[in-house]
Design goal:
Structural class: mainly alpha
Order of helices and strands: HHH
Shape: elongated
Number of helices: 3
Largest sheet: none
Strand content: under 5%
Radius of gyration: 32 Å
Oligomer: single chain
Number of strands: 0
Helix content: 25-40%
């Protein structure tokens, strides 16, 4: 809890202290273009990215990197029932005795006249 709270507050603070002007130029460009198109603000994005790289050492991830699946190496054992599947139900028991047709027909079919 406290680590996440400290981290979430430290990132905007470090951007605000080191790269405030390029960040402001970048978000105002995005905000003031009619449909918030990122392609119209590549110049401001490049200035912001270079400032963040030079002063903070952060590299912008390549397009699509954040949507890739990452496998995490762990010491935990695999779960026994990974898909939380239920056991198969018991089959219906065999019917006992003689089955006769219903004297009044089926409930699923009726005459419409």
């Amino acid at each position: 809890g406290w680590l996440l709270r400290a981290l979430c507050c430290a990132v905007p603070r470090s951007i605000r202290t080191h790269c405030a002007e390029p960040f402001t130029a970048y978000w105002t460009c995005i905000d003031y273009t009619g449909q918030q198109e990122l392609r119209r603000c590549r110049k401001q994005q490049a200035a912001f990215d270079s400032c963040v790289l030079d002063k903070l050492g952060w590299v912008r991830p390549e397009l699509g990197d954040l949507s890739k699946v990452t496998k995490v190496k762990t010491d935990r054992p695999l779960p026994e029932n990974a898909y939380h599947s239920r056991p198969r139900p018991e089959p219906n028991p065999p019917t006992e005795g003689e089955l006769k047709p219903s004297p009044f027909g089926s409930r699923l079919f009726f005459w419409s006249w």
